[in-house]
Write a structure and sequence with these properties.
The complex is a heterotrimer of chains A (152), B (721) and C (230).
Chain A: E1 2-6, E2 9-13, H1 21-28, E3 47-50, E4 53-56, E5 69-71, H2 79-90, H3 100-113, H4 119-126, H5 136-151
Parallel strand pairs in A: 1-5
Antiparallel strand pairs in A: 1-2, 3-4, 3-5
Chain B: H1 12-17, E1 35-37, H2 41-44, E2 49-50, E3 55-57, E4 63-67, H3 76-88, E5 95-99, H4 122-149, E6 156-159, E7 162-165, E8 170-173, H5 174-181, H6 210-214, E9 225-226, E10 230-235, E11 243-248, H7 250-254, E12 258-264, E13 267-272, H8 275-283, E14 286-290, H9 299-311, E15 316-321, H10 324-328, E16 334-342, E17 354-359, E18 365-369, H11 374-385, E19 392-396, H12 412-423, E20 430-433, H13 436-440, E21 449-457, E22 463-472, H14 483-486, E23 498-504, H15 520-537, H16 542-549, H17 556-567, E24 578-586, E25 589-599, E26 605-615, H18 622-642, E27 671-676, H19 694-706, H20 715-718
Helix pairs in contact in B: 3-4, 4-5, 11-12, 15-19
Chain C: H1 3-12, H2 64-79, H3 82-85, E1 95-96, E2 101-102, E3 115-116, E4 119-120, E5 130-131, E6 141-142, H4 162-170, H5 180-189, H6 191-194, H7 210-222
Antiparallel strand pairs in C: 1-2, 3-4, 5-6
The chains are: A alpha+beta (152), B alpha+beta (721), C mainly alpha (230).
C-alpha cells in the first residue's frame, strides 16, 4: 500500500508496487492528460511534478512515492503555470498536442527556477521533451512570452 | 470541443488486477459497458439540429462543424470550420468542431473518392464543399427568419452570428431559429462570397483545439475510457513475415492482473486489467517464431541488391525526353554521377497506434481510434469480427500525430486490433495499444531507395542531360510504374533538353507506407542535391542558376526569389557557416528553403536558421500554414540528420525506441522564418510540402562546408558521427 | 593489463568515484534539492569476468614505491571503466553505455552538477535503479542513487592518464578537499561509488567488489600513495 498526494488529494494505491506512476495516474486514477510516449524516459510526454520537481512518471515506480506530492497537467497551478498556459494558447504552440502536457510541465518548472531563461536555458531545459510535430520554435517563443508576462 | 469532465469512478478494475476481487475473466460482468471518455459528437449535444452533413446548430447558437478529416496537428478542424463560418457569417466564438462519423460516401475526400485524410488535401478538397455547407445553412437560417418575421429574405442580413432585418427592427441569434431553419429547404446551389468580402479566410485564426491541448483535457484514443475495459498488448515477431510457432504462457499468466492470453494471426495478445500488467505479462511470454516466410535480408544486403538492379534489366520509364545517351557522349561534355542511398524510415508519431473496441447490447461495435481512413477501419473490423459494416461505428478521435502512419489501405493495424477484440470474445471493452517498440519495429516504413544520377554539362556550362534511376518498393504495390516512386523527379521543373527517369520496383517482405510527402522524401533530395552539384560544376550560383533553368511561368520562381530575398542570399556569412538552397513542389504547393549550417560540436551539421517561402494558393489560415512549414522543416530535419530503421543480420530491426531512433529535439531546432506568397489560386495543402526541401538545403550547405556531397542518409551516421 | 594499455584507455576516458562529496545544495533557488547524505555502502560479492587482484598479489614487489604504483594501477581497472568514466566527463554532457556515447536525451551539467532548471538529474534518476518492464531490450533499467549527479568539472578525468588521475585525486583542490584518509574511506564506502558494482539490469558492473577496491586503496595509502608516471 502506497499513500501519496495527487493534485492535492490523498490517494492510496495497493496494486503492484513496481507499477510506474504513469499507469497509476492514467489507469487507476483515470487522469489522462499525462501521456505515454516511450516508457524509457526518452520523450518526456509523461512529465509530472513530484514534490515540485519535474519527474518522468513512466520510469518512477509507485513504491518510490510514499508520502510524495504529485501534480499533473490537470492541476498544475500558480503564476508560472498560468503564464505558460496563456502564452502557449496565445501563439498556438500545439499541433497534434500529444506531447504538450509534458512540454508544459517542464516549462513551468523551468520558469519556477529561472524566471528569465535565455534561448540556451530553454533548449537545455526542454531537450528531454520530444515533439514529433517539431513545435519547438513556438515552445521557445511561448516560454519567452511567459517569462515577460511574469516580469510585470 | 471534446471537453469532458474527467470522471473518477471506483478503482475496482485496478484492484481486480491485484487479484483481490473474484471473477476476473474476459467475460466481465455481462453488462453493456459504459463509455466514460471519448463520446462522439451526437452524444455530447443531442439538441443540436443538423442543417446538412457538416453543420449543426444548437439552441445555444453554438455551431458544430463535423470534420470529415482527422485532426492530428495539421489543422483541418480549424480550417474546415473557418470555411463554414465564413459563408455562414457566424461569429468565431460560436464555432465548435467534432469528428464526422465514418461514411465513405457522405464524408468522402473529393480527391480520393473515399473518406480519408492525406496527400495534403484536407483544405484543397473541402474548400468549395465546406463553403457551400456554410452558405446552405445560412440560406436556411435566412429563410426561417423571413418566414417568422414575414419579411423578404433578400432584405435580411447576417453578420457575426446575428440575423437582422433592418427595416422591421427584427434580429435573432442562430439558436432561436435553429429548429425551424433545420426544416427549411436547402438551396441547391447556394451563392458563395466573392473572396474580396472574406472576413475570416486569409487571416490568422487561433486553433480551436489549442485550449484542450494546453490544459490536458484533449482526448486522444489512448485516453478513451470505458467501464470494465481490458488493456491488450500484442507480442510481435522480431522479423517481418514470421509467425507464432509455439508459446509458453506459464510465467505470463502468473502476473497479477493478466486476464488471458490468446494467439492471433499477428502474434500473441495479452489481456490485462491495467496497462502495466499487460506489459509485464507480455515481457514474460516465451515464444518460438516460425521464420519460414520471414524476410531475412539485412539493409546492407538490400542496398547491394538495389545497386545491382540499376546496371541490370531495363527499368520502367517515367520520363524520356531528347537523346540522353547521345548528349552524355557529345563533344566537350563533362559528366558527373552520384549514387544515393535512403534508409527505411519510421513515422514515429508521438501517440503510438491504438484503438478501443466495444460491443453494444445489440451486437453492434463501436471503435474509437485515430481513424485516418475511417471507412477502411470500419470494413476491417466488420470483416474480422464477422458483423455487418452497418453495425460498426468508427468514432474518430484526436490523434497524436500520423505523418502518414495511420492511413492504410486495408487497415492492417485495425485488423490486429480487431483480431485482439474478437479473440477476447468481445464481451468487455478492449483498448489495444502499441508501445514505442511496436511502433519503431512495426514496419510500414518509408521504403529504402537507391538513386543513381548522371548529368552532363556542355562546354558553355549548360546542363544538357540528366539520367536518373530510382530503385525501391512500390508503395502502391504496383507492377507497372508507380508514380509515387518517381513524383518530384519525373516531373522536375528544370528545363533540361535530354532527360530520362527510370524506376525499378523490387518486391520485399518489409511492409511499407507513405511517409510525410511520400515520393518527395527522396526525389526532392535527389533532384535538389544533384542539380546543386551540376550548377556548382558549371560555375553557377545555386539561386540564379536554378532560376535560369525554370520556365517563366513556373510557380517555383516566386518562392525561390522570395526566399533568396528573405535570406539576403549572397550576403557575407559568419565564419564557419555556409548556406544551401532547395525548391520543391509537392501536392501542388511550392516551397523554397535556405538553410544556414555550420559544423557542430558533435561533428555533424548544426542548422542555425532556415528561411522558407511557400505558395499554397489562397492562404486560408496563415497561422497554421506557418506552423506546418515550421513543423515540416523540423520533422524532415530530424529524419535526414538522425533517422534510419536498419535491418540487421537475419532481418531483425535494430532500432527500437527514441534512444536509437532519434527525433529532432529543441536544442537542434533552427530558427525558422516563413513567408507566404500572396495568391488567389485555389488553396493547396501544407501538411507535407514543407518537408522535402529541408534535406537537400542542409545537404547542399554541408557539401559547401565539407567538400563532400551527402550520398547516404542519415547524414550523422553517414558522416560517422 | 599493461601500463601501455591503460594509458591508451586513458586517452579515451577518465575515471570513477569521488562523487558524493560534491555539494548539490549550492543551487541558488529555494526549490533546489539538497544533496542527500551518502547512505550505507553497497558491496556486491558476485563473481565477475574481470576480477580485481587482492592486495596480497602485490606482496612480491619489494620496492614500496613500485608496489604502491602497481596497486594503484590495479584500481585503474575500476577507475577507467566506462561505468565510472561516464560521470566524470571533461565536458558538460554525461556519457553513457560501454561505448561512452553522449547521454541521450541530451542533458547538461548545470551549475551544481545536477542538471538545469526544468531538467535536473532527478527528473529521471531516482534513489535506486529502476527496472524497466516491457520496453526495449536495450534499456532494462534506469540507473539511480539517492545522490545521483555528475562529478564536478575539476574532477573530470576524461582524456587523462592514470598517472594524471592519481595526482588529481590526491590534490585537495581537485578532490573535494579530502585528506588521504577521507579519500580512502570514500573509495571504500561511498554509496554512489558503490553504484559502479551495482549498476542495474542491462549494465556491466565494474570489476571486483567495492570491498576489494577499498582494500587496494588502503594498501596504496599504506605504501605511500605513489602515482604512476603521468
Amino acid at each position: 500500500m502506497v499513500s501519496f498526494t495527487l493534485n492535492g488529494e490523498e490517494r492510496r494505491f495497493d496494486g503492484d508496487p513496481e507499477t510506474p506512476l504513469l499507469w497509476v495516474i492514467r489507469d487507476a486514477e483515470r487522469l489522462t492528460g499525462t501521456k505515454y510516449g516511450c516508457g524509457i524516459a526518452q520523450c518526456g510526454a509523461c512529465t509530472v511534478h513530484v514534490d515540485g520537481m519535474t519527474r518522468r512518471s513512466c520510469i518512477t515506480p509507485i513504491a518510490d512515492l510514499e508520502g510524495s506530492s504529485v501534480t499533473t497537467i490537470e492541476a498544475v497551478s500558480g503564476r508560472e503555470a498560468e503564464a505558460v498556459q496563456t502564452a502557449w494558447t496565445a501563439i498556438d504552440v500545439p499541433q497534434c498536442g500529444y506531447c504538450q502536457s509534458g512540454q508544459i510541465m517542464s516549462a513551468v518548472s523551468l520558469l519556477q527556477m529561472n524566471p528569465a531563461p535565455s534561448d540556451a536555458d530553454i533548449d537545455a531545459a526542454m531537450a528531454g521533451n520530444i515533439c514529433r510535430c517539431a513545435t519547438y520554435q513556438r515552445i521557445r517563443q511561448a516560454i519567452h512570452d511567459a517569462a515577460s508576462s511574469l516580469e510585470g | 470541443m471534446g471537453r469532458h469532465e474527467i470522471l473518477r469512478p471506483s478503482r475496482r478494475a485496478f484492484l481486480q488486477g491485484a487479484g483481490l476481487v473474484i471473477g476476473v475473466t474476459l467475460a466481465g460482468r455481462g453488462m453493456a459497458a459504459n463509455l466514460i471518455q471519448g463520446e462522439p459528437a451526437d452524444v455530447q449535444n443531442p439538441e443540436a439540429k443538423a442543417f446538412n452533413a457538416f453543420v449543426r446548430i444548437a439552441p445555444d447558437s453554438s455551431v458544430t462543424v463535423l470534420s470529415k478529416h482527422i485532426e492530428f496537428g495539421q489543422g483541418p478542424y480549424t480550417g474546415l470550420t473557418t470555411l463554414v463560418a465564413e459563408e455562414l457569417d457566424a461569429d468565431w466564438s460560436q464555432m465548435r468542431v467534432e469528428a464526422a462519423p465514418a461514411d465513405d460516401e457522405i464524408y468522402k475526400n473529393l480527391a480520393f473518392g473515399l473518406q480519408g485524410t492525406g496527400g495534403s488535401t484536407a483544405i484543397a478538397n473541402s474548400y468549395d464543399q465546406m463553403r457551400k455547407a456554410g452558405a446552405t445553412a445560412r440560406a436556411m437560417l435566412v429563410a426561417a427568419a423571413a418566414d417568422e418575421w414575414g419579411v423578404p429574405a433578400e432584405e435580411i442580413t447576417v453578420s457575426k452570428g446575428v440575423i437582422s432585418h433592418q427595416a422591421s427592427g427584427h434580429s435573432s441569434d442562430f439558436g432561436s431559429l435553429a429548429d425551424k431553419a433545420a426544416t427549411m429547404d436547402a438551396p441547391s446551389e447556394p451563392t458563395l462570397k466573392d473572396p474580396k468580402d472574406f472576413v475570416l479566410i486569409g487571416k490568422d485564426r487561433p486553433r480551436l483545439d489549442t485550449p484542450s491541448k494546453v490544459d490536458g483535457t484533449a482526448v486522444f484514443t489512448l485516453d478513451v475510457l470505458a467501464d470494465d475495459m481490458l488493456i491488450a498488448v500484442v507480442a510481435h515477431p522480431d522479423r517481418f513475415g514470421a509467425t507464432v510457432a509455439s508459446v509458453d504462457e506459464t510465467e505470463a499468466r502468473k502476473v497479477p492482473g493478466v486476464v488471458d492470453i490468446k494467439t492471433i494471426p499477428q502474434g500473441v495478445a495479452v489481456y490485462a486489467e491495467n496497462t502495466f500488467a499487460a506489459l509485464k505479462g507480455r515481457a514474460a511470454l516465451k515464444i518460438d517464431w516460425n521464420l519460414d516466410a520471414a524476410e531475412t535480408r539485412s539493409s546492407e544486403e538490400i542496398y547491394e541488391e538495389y545497386r545491382q538492379m540499376i546496371g541490370g534489366a531495363q527499368g520502367l520509364e517515367a520520363a524520356n525526353e531528347g537523346d540522353v545517351d547521345g548528349a552524355m557522349n557529345g563533344d566537350g561534355i563533362t559528366t558527373l554521377s552520384v549514387d544515393l542511398v535512403f534508409p527505411f524510415l519510421a513515422h514515429a508519431p508521438m501517440e503510438p497506434l491504438d484503438a478501443v473496441l466495444m460491443r453494444q447490447a445489440d451486437g453492434s461495435i463501436d471503435c474509437y481510434n485515430g481513424a485516418q481512413f475511417p471507412g477502411q477501419d470500419k470494413a476491417a473490423i466488420a470483416e474480422v469480427c464477422g458483423v455487418d459494416p452497418a453495425n460498426v461505428r468508427v468514432n474518430t478521435q484526436l490523434a497524436g500525430g500520423s505523418f502518414g502512419r495511420r492511413a492504410q489501405f486495408g487497415s492492417p493495424y485495425m485488423r490486429e486490433a480487431a483480431e485482439v477484440f474478437k479473440a477476447s470474445g468481445m464481451t468487455r471493452p478492449v483498448k489495444h495499444m502499441w508501445t514505442r517498440e511496436d511502433d519503431i519495429r512495426g514496419g510500414f516504413y518509408r521504403p529504402i531507395y537507391v538513386h543513381s544520377l548522371r548529368g552532363a554539362i556542355d562546354g558553355a556550362g549548360n546542363i544538357v542531360a540528366w539520367d536518373q534511376s530510382i530503385v525501391g518498393q512500390s508503395i502502391m504495390n504496383k507492377d507497372e510504374l508507380d508514380t509515387t516512386s518517381v513524383e518530384g523527379a519525373s516531373d522536375m521543373p528544370y528545363r533540361i533538353a535530354n532527360r530520362r527517369v527510370t524506376a525499378h520496383q523490387p518486391k520485399l517482405g518489409v511492409p511499407i507506407l507513405w511517409w510525410r510527402s511520400v515520393g518527395h522524401t527522396h526525389t526532392g533530395f535527389a533532384v535538389e542535391t544533384f542539380i546543386d552539384q551540376l550548377l556548382d560544376k558549371a560555375g553557377k550560383d545555386p539561386v540564379s542558376g536554378r532560376l535560369a533553368l525554370l520556365p517563366d511561368d513556373a510557380r517555383e520562381r516566386a518562392v525561390l526569389e522570395k526566399v533568396a530575398e528573405m535570406a539576403d542570399w549572397g550576403s557575407p556569412l559568419p565564419d564557419g557557416r555556409r548556406r544551401g538552397v532547395a525548391v520543391h513542389k509537392s501536392f501542388s504547393t511550392y516551397v523554397a528553403e535556405i538553410a544556414e549550417v555550420s559544423i557542430g560540436e558533435d561533428g555533424g551539421p548544426k542548422v542555425h536558421k532556415v528561411w522558407c517561402a511557400v505558395d499554397c494558393g489562397v492562404a486560408v489560415n496563415p497561422n497554421i500554414i506557418r506552423a506546418q512549414m515550421e513543423g515540416g522543416i523540423g520533422y524532415g530535419l530530424g529524419a535526414i540528420l538522425y533517422d534510419e530503421v536498419t535491418l540487421g543480420d537475419g532481418g531483425r530491426v535494430v532500432q527500437s525506441n527514441f534512444h536509437d531512433y532519434r527525433s529532432l529535439r529543441i536544442s537542434e531546432m533552427p530558427q525558422v522564418e516563413v513567408a507566404i506568397i500572396e495568391s488567389s489560386a485555389a488553396p493547396t495543402g501544407v501538411g507535407e510540402p514543407g518537408t522535402p526541401p529541408i534535406g537537400p538545403a542542409v545537404a547542399n550547405a554541408w557539401r559547401r562546408l565539407t567538400g563532400q556531397p551527402v550520398t547516404r542518409l542519415p547524414i550523422m551516421s553517414a558522416a560517422g558521427v | 593489463m599493461t601500463k601501455t594499455t591503460l594509458t591508451r584507455f586513458c586517452l579515451l576516458a577518465s575515471a570513477c568515484a569521488l562523487l558524493s562529496a560534491a555539494p548539490v545544495a549550492g543551487w541558488s533557488q529555494d526549490r533546489a534539492p539538497a544533496a542527500p547524505e551518502p547512505s550505507q555502502p553497497v558491496v556486491q560479492k558476485k563473481a565477475e569476468t574481470v576480477q580485481l587482484r587482492p592486495v596480497s598479489d602485490f606482496d612480491a614487489i619489494e620496492d614500496e614505491t613500485e608496489r604502491s604504483i602497481a596497486i594503484f594501477e590495479e584500481t585503474g581497472k575500476v577507475l577507467l571503466h566506462p561505468r565510472c568514466v561516464n560521470c566524470h566527463p571533461a565536458g558538460n554532457v554525461p556519457l553513457q553505455t560501454m561505448a561512452m556515447t553522449p547521454h541521450q536525451p541530451p542533458v547538461v551539467r548545470g551549475d551544481a552538477n545536477f542538471g538545469v532548471p526544468g531538467l535536473m538529474c532527478n527528473t529521471c534518476h531516482g534513489p535506486e535503479n529502476v527496472k524497466v518492464v516491457g520496453q526495449t531490450e536495450d534499456i532494462l533499467s534506469i540507473p539511480g542513487n539517492p545522490n545521483w549527479h555528475l562529478a564536478p568539472i575539476e574532477m573530470a578525468w576524461q582524456g587523462r592518464s592514470l598517472g594524471e588521475i592519481c595526482e588529481q585525486i590526491k590534490d585537495t583542490d581537485r578532490n573535494g578537499g579530502k585528506t588521504l584518509a577521507e579519500l580512502i574511506e570514500h573509495m571504500a564506502e561511498d554509496d554512489l561509488v558503490g553504484w559502479g558494482w551495482n549498476p542495474g539490469e542491462g549494465r556491466e558492473p565494474v570489476p571486483g567488489t567495492q570491498e576489494a577496491f577499498g582494500d587496494l586503496y588502503k594498501a596504496w595509502a599504506a605504501t605511500g600513495a605513489h602515482c604512476p608516471a603521468p
